[in-house]
Every structure is written in C-alpha cells, then in structure tokens.
Design goal:
The complex is a heterodimer.
Chain A lengths: L2 E5 L2 E5 L4 E8 L6 E6 L5 E7 L5 E3 L5 E5 L4 E6 L8 E11 L2 E6 L3 E6 L1
Parallel strand pairs in A: 2-11
Antiparallel strand pairs in A: 1-3, 3-8, 4-5, 4-9, 6-7, 7-8, 9-10, 9-11
Chain B lengths: L4 E3 L2 E4 L5 E6 L6 E7 L6 E7 L2 E4 L8 E4 L6 E5 L8 E8 L7 E2 L3 E5 L1
Parallel strand pairs in B: 2-11
Antiparallel strand pairs in B: 1-3, 3-8, 4-5, 4-9, 5-6, 7-8, 9-10, 9-11
Classes of the chains: A mainly beta, B mainly beta.
C-alpha cells in the first residue's frame, strides 16, 4: 500500500540557510508524488509534483524536490530560506483505488524561519 | 480562473447540533474531495466524488456524516449530530484527476463546544 513518512514534525532554519524537508514513500509501483504548502488559516497549495518524467522537479517559490527510487525518497529543498517560507509542508502520494486516484498525505512538517 | 470556494469559513456549534458545509469546485473539475484536518495533522480524506458518484467514502463516519454532489458540481457535507471530536478544519478540493494534483479551498474551521 502506498504511504508517505515525513521525518521531523518541526524544522527550524535561519533566514538565508538551506531548507531540507524529508519525505520517504512506500509504493509497490512508481508513484506520483506531491509537495503541498499550507499557510496559517488557508487551504493547501500545490508546490510541485513528480509524475515519472524528470527526477528533479522544480516548483513554485524556488522549491525543488528530487525523486530517488533507490532511497524511496522525495525530499524538498530550497537553497536560501525566506521569512515568507514559514508554513506547514505536506508530502503526498497518489494511490489508485477502483480506477480512480486518491492522495495520501503525510503528517506534515512545520517550517520555522529564524531572523 | 476562480478557485475552489467554501462556505462558511468559520462555524461554532454546540455538541449534538447539526452543521452543513458547502463547496463549489473549479469549473470542469470532475473529481471533488472532502478532507478533515485536525490541528497538527495532515488532511484525512472523508469522501471522494467522481462527477456525482462516490469513489471512496471508507473513512466517512456514516452514522453522523453525509455528503452529496448533486449534478456533479457543488457539494455539501453535513454532520448530524456533531461531537466534540469533530472540531477540525474541513477542506474541499477538486481536480481534473488527482495525478495532476488537487486544488484546495480555504477550508471551514468548525468548533464544537
């Protein structure tokens, strides 16, 4: 069964530092993988998605993620953190049920940015 | 392009009362989802519609929750009667198909006292 595990419920980095949010997936078939961001009191916004094309996926706001099959990982990175990046980030995997897909979300990682 | 609309944004009720939430998906999106997000957790799928048919409602507490999507467009989610543990944000999302990702509404924050 497909699922995702996000390592670290809270990550804190300094402004300008590298952001690394970890996500590992389990899937019996090549998955579709997603990263979503949720700002306070808002719904989720799609950051980027992997759909079996290029393994390095670029998203909005300078974020990117690399699909590594050998490590079953899909970590999210950004070279230089900005204060506006403070939010909750969710990794998700697409699962096929009865010919329709549904998305399974991880438990989330809260990103804090220190001035 | 208009996004996913939800109303109300906030609702406070007492336990055992009833409440209903409304969602209008992005035009043309065949798939509509209702999620429950409890504070500090990821969204949990309650029900998924493909047009006006139910694809997955395995995690919907059917003794108290119901949802419908008449005409394959708007949808309503109802809780009757509400319990304290139903306090959460209820998110609606829509997509062409979930492999392309989903578009979320702002959510309805429900507080049950």
């Amino acid at each position: 069964a497909q699922s995702v595990t996000q390592l670290g419920s809270h990550v804190s980095v300094s402004e300008g530092a590298l952001v690394l949010l970890r996500c590992n997936y389990s899937s019996s078939v090549p998955p579709y993988l997603f990263w979503y961001v949720q700002y306070p009191n808002q719904g989720l916004q799609l950051l980027l998605k992997y759909t079996s094309a290029a393994t390095l996926v670029k998203g909005i706001n300078g974020f990117e993620a690399e699909f590594k099959k050998s490590e079953t990982s899909f970590h999210l990175t950004k070279p230089s953190a900005h204060m506006s990046d403070a939010a909750e980030y969710f990794c998700a995997v697409s699962k096929l049920i009865s010919s329709a897909s549904k998305i399974i979300f991880g438990s989330g990682t809260r990103l804090s940015i220190r001035p | 392009e208009a996004g996913v609309a939800q109303s109300p944004r906030y609702k406070i009720i007492e336990k055992r009362q009833s409440v209903a939430f409304w969602c209008n998906p992005i035009s043309g999106h065949a798939t509509l989802y209702w999620y429950q997000q409890i504070l500090g957790q990821g969204p949990k799928l309650l029900i998924q519609f493909q047009n006006n048919g139910v694809v997955d409602d395995s995690q919907l507490p059917k003794d108290r929750f119901s949802a419908e999507r008449l005409k394959g467009v708007d949808s309503t989610l109802k809780i009757q009667p509400a319990k304290l543990e139903d306090s959460a944000v209820y998110l609606c999302a829509s997509s062409w198909d979930s492999d392309r990702g989903q578009y979320f509404g702002p959510g309805t924050r429900l507080t049950v006292l």
